Amino acid sequence: MVPGKRKAVLAVAGLVLAAVFSGCSIGGPTGQERADELANQLKSSELGVRSAEAIYLTSFSGDLTVSVVLEPEVVEPGYRVSAATLGPILGMIARSAKQMNVGGVGFYAEDEGGIHVSMVQAADELGIAEAVNGNSLSLTGERLDSLAKQ
To answer: What phi and psi, each to the nearest 5 degrees, are found at residue 2?
Structure first.
């Protein structure tokens, strides 16, 4: 191979690898842009989400963290959320996560005062009790697949 041509090929390969590892897709939205779109979809949905933030974590697996503030009318006594409320929210997140090819999603929910909302009972009813991790849900692989159907 001609030395100048070899340098050009190596430069292009380097750019492609940099784009892949930074969460960018050539010619399309970045991982964070897709995460921002998910947050906007959650806020504009009628699923009881007052505000949402999604952060694409640039890593090999490209994980996603989603935090929502729930509307007062969907937070039950004892700062709990029902499976009827949580299921559709997680379904929207899971479908987006699958489209984004993320390895996992960390999900957090609060009320408008910043108090963590318990998802224990709702997760149990949704068949994902093992996803509960303190004040969050850790959603990976099979869980995302099942929730995407919600």
So the answer is: -65, 135
